[in-house]
Design brief:
With about 110 residues, the protein is of the alpha/beta class. The chain is about 35% helix and about 30% strand. The chain contains three helices and five strands. α1 links the parallel β2 and β3. The two termini are about 20 Å apart.
Length: about 110
């Protein structure tokens, strides 16, 4: 399940799009979740932030990890930022292992 992104403005007038992902990101749920992220990316304006809320994500597969890196690059080219929040320790360890903790803001 994906809760749609809703743009909001922060103190610095920067648009923030928050997307709450729910459940495992595996081969079965990957299309729905990646399509939601990609749709949001396409509507974002420069200097925006995309925040992926992983509060209810116990597992992500390697395909999704690869897409996180690609989305980071896509957003960086638009002058935007990708942040991941509420990451559980297992998913955080996986992201750290592949080095995304050096590229993405992960909390």
């Amino acid at each position: 399940t994906v809760v749609p992104a809703a743009p909001s403005s922060s103190e610095t007038s920067q648009s923030v799009y928050t997307l709450e992902l729910k459940g495992d990101v595996d081969q079965y749920s990957f299309p729905e979740k990646s399509n939601a992220v990609q749709s949001t990316l396409e509507t974002m304006v420069p200097r925006s932030q995309l925040v992926l809320d992983f509060k209810n994500v116990p597992y992500i597969n390697s395909l999704f990890i690869g897409h996180l890196a690609a989305w980071h690059n896509q957003l960086k080219n638009k002058g935007c930022v990708l942040k991941i929040i509420h990451v559980n320790p297992v998913v955080k360890d996986t992201l750290d292992l592949v080095g995304l903790n050096h590229v993405l803001a992960i909390n």
